[in-house]
Please model this.
Amino acid sequence: MNRSLSATGKYGGYLLVLLLLLTAGPSLAVNLAAVERTWTPPDGGAAIRMWGFVEDPGSCTALPNSWLPGPIQQGVVNGTLSITLRNCLSEPVSLIIPGLETNLTPQTFVDAGGRTRVRAFTHEVPADNGTTVVTYSWNNLRAGTYLYQSGSHPAKQVPMGLYGAVTVGRDTAAANDVVLLFSEIDPALHGAAEAANAKNYKPKYYLINGQSALPGSAPPVVAGGRNQKTLQLRFLNAGLMTHVPTIQGPYMTLIAEDGYPYPYPRQQYSVLLPAGKTIDALWSPDVQASFALYDRRLSMTTNGTPGGGMLVSLNVAKKFPWILYVPPIIHGGIVVP
Amino acid sequence: MTTRFNLTMQLSMAIVLALLFQVSPLQARIDGITGTNFTLSVKTGRVFTPDGGSILLWGYADGAGPAQYPGPTLIVNEGDTITITLNNALTVAGANPAPNVSILFPGQRAEASTTDPGVPGILTSEAVPGGSVTYTFIADHPGTYLYYSGTDPALQVEMGLMGAIIVRPSSGAGFAYNHPDTAFDREYLFLLSEMDPRIHEAIEFDGPQSTAVGPYLANPFPVVWFINGRNAPDTLDIPNLPVLPNQPYNSAPMMHPGERVLLRVIGGGRDLHPFHHHGNHSRIIARDGRLLASSPGAGPDLSHEVFTIKSVPGETVDAIFEWTGKGLGWDIYGTPADGPQFVHTCVDGNGDDFDDTTHEYCPDHDKPIPVVLPDNLDLAFGGFYSGSPFLGTLGSLPPGEGGLNPHGGFAYMWHSHTEKELTNFDIFPGGLMTMLIIVPQGASIP
Amino acid sequence: MATGYHRIIMKIVLTGSLFFLGSSSVHAGVLVQCPGDADGSATWTGAEVQPAHTKCMHLGAGDGFVTMADGKLQYVFGFSDLTGIAANTPTGTAEILEAGTTAAGFPAPLIVLDEGDEFYLTLTNIGMSMRPDLFDPHTVHFHGFPQAASIFDGVPDASISINMGSSLTYYFKLNNPGTYMYHCHVEAAEHMQMGMLGSLYVRAAQNGTVFNYNGKDFNKFAYNDGDGSTGYDLEYPIQIGSFDSAFHDANLAVQPLPFATMFDNYSMLNGRGYPDTVNPNPLPPPAENGGKLSQIESTLITASPGESVLLRISNLNVTRMNTLATLGIPMRVIGKDAKQLRGPDGKNLYYKTNSITVGGGESYDVILDIPAGASGKTYFLYTTQLHYLSNDAEQFGGMMTEIRIN
Model:
């Protein structure tokens, strides 16, 4: 039971409510495949080789091409999430959800010095052109927001693009929710992924939900719920660098990290979002408008050109969708008549 | 082996003179401009670094004044409607025009005025070259805030377009917020930032269309670090130095034992900085201009103590720092055994364990310092060493040593604990660092 | 009677430059000051009697070598533990200099204290055997010590540091439990990059009393919590750090030091990269050290089901912040910077998470509550800055260790 990121982003709460209704049982069983794809930068740069998770096409033929973060998985509180993974890549892969507890069966090798090292945090799907599928399960899901990502050679496979979001439930105060997944791409590591070494990681593209804003153009639009309705913002960082998502103008109420509620909510206009972290925040827009959301670490460049990168426009829809109304445009909290 | 760099020699004698003779009756206040209507202009300037170099600055200026790094600290009162007109007086190299400029006010609901709306940008309304834009917002919450460019921030904030905002509460200037637990005796601003001079050089020579700047903007690698726009040891010099025309603010905290000092710490650049304040813990009472309170009116009941403030870019932290030397186990004012000049009393009339005037911790009164200090020949001395372990005492030092601590204060380094950031280019010490001087009661503080 | 104000002013006027501190001190070279200890061993043997609530330690400051997890030999500055050698004897100075030469440990020797202790810490500057051109003084900065006196704060600019061949004894009265750290503060960007840093923590006075928390009795606590909520069964110090090998190589080769380009390429826990972090034994000493151990601390975390494990995490990295995560088990964060996470009126600010971001000079106290059914499981403690999971170019290494449940 899952939908692509873009679909969820576009239709926001409607789809989620629908999906929650359709997902009658507590279990969510999905099939994914790890595949090679490409990502085309918005600035016309050459397509970049990526690895990503997609809905399992059933074999390693006829694979989709354009890379995005893996499809959002929407689990049910106290339910079970099972992901059956096919591997269309050239090396073994695996799946972990850092914020959720499960049985890990680490995979090891012995180095030249006789020392045993872990190469994968848990059991793997072999690289056999998609023949074998392996199931990963998480029980007693806690409400919250999580990353799923490769647990095999993470220093390489995660920056190659093997990550996605898991959402479980929604805060009772929120009418809608939205995923904001931050990540980076260093093209230098993607040319020959088998030989890649992240030691000198220097990303050139900074992404939110798989998109890097194009300098000089309107930023990508993210559905921001409805005016006068509380929105749950789900921040995730699948990148390797720290980011500081900042909403221009209003304050958010930070309520949880890594799926664990804070003892007391925090009022901030910014979120410290280190590598691998997830943060849930609530926001109640009081105007129908669009709000800029950007990385205050200033990863607001696209291949070095300022004015792009980690920047989206969070569009708040009207309170009552059936009433015709032309909204003002807000630039950074400034109403432009 | 580091390049030896004598902090003492770098410091102008002006500091010592200022410390000795300044008798201002006013308590330390943060430098800035006050009012409800401000006119800021974006101009070029030079950031001077202590190695003698300089870096191209794009700075906010107070009206007709010079560009400033950081921009003028705007000090306003809770409830006031604030109007800020921004003029774009920026000039750049090359044939291309100067870029638009703008201001973002995180945490404020700012609007562009209908009479001077500027032009729409991606993040906010902007002033075109030679043009202007006027913003208004209601300062409806007290606290510490910042402002910075909303036009190509990855470039323009790096170039210097950022500054601090202080909203004073209706409770009065001696409070950080509207609660008694936020009262303070002194306050200091610590606006932390960094620069990658390669970016500034590319812009200086090629203008904003520089093609060389891209790789540096994608992966900045700063090599100079600032408090309030200055690198150590210039942080410790006096404000408004003629030789630092674009860096008017200093950072030279001083206090007496027992006082409550408010630290307003702002992440003005792009990097996180662990700001370590030697001497004692501080209590973080607010972040992003909001009191750490479990409910409105509860006061900072969710505050907590730290010895290193994790400063996050774009965020602000308010913290209260206090120091008395409580519980050290020896008398910080010396004992009769140290000499007749150290005979003193500890008078605790109110039963709080402290001398009512000096804030000496009476349970440690007349307890001798428990170890013998080595001979001067065995020691190296710092410029801020008084020559004595005792507060308010000047000891004998070899010629050329000490000299920066005329009141015999206790000195504590306040600095980034990413110690690499204590350099100016390749030279240690410098960078994101200053010294707190705790001087005895009676010694004046500028 | 003079008021405080007048007293102080008179003090300034009277003492001025007249008071000669040196008149009460001694030029003694190596000298250990430790109450009840006659021979300068910083321990109490034979007829010597340890005063109540008193601890002593003797650290040497010098240089030496360590081995990175990819086999690279790394030159370091560092501290060595000279406690136990009779320093205040006719042969003491020679023995101390002998024992302290190429004896630098990384991280520095672990310092464990108890609340209420009076701690006499003697630092002897051994000198750099591989860099005889250097005459650097050294200090110990007890990082985070509350209500510090500047004379014992170890900041060379603010007070005193000790020259080669001599000793300085620091005095600390420990009124506050928690996880601190220590390092040399002389030319800090250099001396700390070179390795002069270590873990230091102070155990709570509440230890020994029994509190029941979540159905379990504890008699060891991170803080004086009054309710057992910081209780633990096992404690492990975790010192986050990293090295820029180019900087170390330049130092050994007497080259100009590249501060501006400093970029760490070895990420470590307790002075080792993975998989050396899970080696339970001291690493074999480099031959260049003359057989002296330099990497004693393992970071293999072992526990039994049902136990609560306190991780005392500190970071003295000089180039960056680090995010340290657990995989398979959550962190319960109960302290930061040697303070219990509790508001002024008693509200607990503890929180659960899977990672903490620790800047240089920050510490966190984290408890892992091992589930009852966890026998045989392995969890991980690793950095989510995944590019730091390497030993220079060697993959499957860096800032990571294992948590093995018996």
